[in-house]
Amino acid sequence: MTTPTMKAWRVRRPGPMNTRPLEHVTTEVPRPAPGELLVAVRACGVCRTDLHVAEGDLPVHRPGVIPGHEVVAEVIQIGPEGGPTTQAGEFAVGDRVGIAWLRYTCGRCKFCGSGNENLCPESRYTGWDADGGYAEFATVPATYAHPLPDRYSDTELAPLLCAGIIGYRALLRAELPAGGRLGIYGFGGSAHLTAQVALAQGAEVHVMTRGDKAKELASSLGAASVQGADDRPPVALDSAILFAPVGDLVLPALEALDRGGTLAVAGIHLSDIPPMNYQRHLFQERQLRSVASNTRADAREFLAFAGSHHLEVTTPRYPLGKADDALTDLAEGRISGAAVLVI
Q: First-to-last CA distance in the chain?
């Protein structure tokens, strides 16, 4: 009997994109373990975290991993019963489902018990600890798959599954008051979705970013002001989110906060933060907070919001065979919005 195969990309040897760390391969279609779904990938978002995995900013967890954790797919097989999760739950063959970054938590530790499963010490992640969506097929534990809202195409949905979810988590961490002034530093895939959520909630959004296309996109979505990445916004900010993985921007972002303001750093990786001056950057009860992944509750809340407030998703598209080009364009700042691989 012939073993079914698929096309996929693996991280051959982490390094800068100009060293071509990804390898295009033909490999076996994975088999779903007990409690897992086997899915045919329709689209997969190209996330900056994929770039960190490919370039080695994040340590290797699975040698030769298939990246990708913004996966829109169709269920084609349900794994056998048994094991830690035994049911497909709400999913059936033929359903459209989403696969996101968070793939496993222990369910036993104090963090899982308190609703903070994103801090679980045993957490595992799609496209880092397990193979992801830069492939024609993938698997996912059924309890970590997500139902998807209607009224969106596959390519529009893909960035919602990390860029959208993480941006939503970062917005919660930033503690933006009702009708408040939000600063956004960096305006890529996650930021352009988070800005729309904040605007829909009645916020005034100010964007600091580089690149003419990013600035044009921010203006078109309704930002009150748009300026350079380290420029001072025209008003004091109640909250801010740093999406760019640039530690140098932490200081101007903190300095732009009003008294009692909060800066949330949304990325999983950040270059070093320069020394800060306590009086200029932290005094008057300003706060600096990190964002670590998301909970499944965050994902369900955000996807429900997206279902009731249609978001404009800017999605430059690449065929699966051009995944390395997509990551290179992301690394070099040539992508406006959130790139998507179409399978």
A: 26
Residues 248-267 pLDDT 10s = 999 999 999 999 999 999 98
Q: Which residues contact residue 70 at a Cβ distance below 8 angstroms, ignoring those fewer than 6 apart?
A: 44, 45, 46, 47, 99, 100, 133, 158, 159, 160, 161, 162, 163, 340
The rounded distance, in Å, linking the Cα atoms of 121 and 90 is 27
Cα-trace Rg, the chain:
20
Q: Give the distance from CA 169 to its chain's centroid.
A: 10
Does the reported pTM lie above 0.85?
A: yes
CA angle at 327 for the pair 321 and 330, rounded to the nearest 5° = 140
Q: 225 has which bridge partners?
A: 206
Residue 117 near residue 123 (C-beta atoms within 8 A): yes
Tens of pLDDT, residue by residue over 32-66, are: 999 999 999 999 999 999 999 999 999 999 999 99
Q: Is the pLDDT of residue 89 over 80?
A: no
User: Quick one: 86 exposed, middle or buried, by C-beta within 10 A (0-12, 13-18, 19+)?
Assistant: middle
The three-state secondary structure class of 173 is helix
Token pair in block for residue 175:
């503690």
